[in-house]
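hey can u check if this looks right to u? its 218 residues, i copy pasted from the old doc so theres a chance i mangled smth
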Amino acid sequence: MKNQTRRCITPSAVALALALSAGIAAAQTGGTSQPAGAASQPNAPGQANGANTMNSMPNNMNMGSSTMASSQDKMFLKEASEGDMFEIKASQLALQKSSSDDVKQYAQMMIDDHTKLDNAMKPIASEAGVSPATDLGGKQKKEYAKLDGLSGDAFDKEYIKVMVMDHSKVSKAFGMEASNGQLADEKNAAAQNKPTVDMHLQKAQQLAQTHNVPAGGM
């Protein structure tokens, strides 16, 4: 009958339409089509969301790096240990060789304070993997030998000059470590002991004036 003609849809046409629909869906999602009724496969461990796995990794691989000693920290601890040893040994010489009471009093203060400082820094150095000094450095050995060959006023002037120069350097090193150190304990120790180091420097400068030691050394 007119206008009542029915169009026949063949099974092959249905299959083609379904295939095209599946292909379009797969292209839109970036995945692959699965047969109808197929069970979805769970993601393997460590492979959640496919390409997004790397983005889902925790960004904390460097956790704890703020508590690790830097090369600056280790150098500071090494030099501080050697410096304490030199200050103590040089001041022990001063007690034997100096001809001035004020120099001897200063030397005793150096022995007492640097012994305490060395004992306070040892566990921090151990935490950072730095062994305490067992001997003087090269320059320190030469300076110690020079002091050991002097006596009286000549010894006093050389000892005072060395104390001024050394404590000027140490004060700067402690200030830098207090600001930039990576180890919390080391930063705190540097900040807490810098006033003592500065006091040592001031008293050495006063001795330099009293004993006519030039500001720039001899």
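The CA atoms of residues 147 and 158 lie 7 Å apart.
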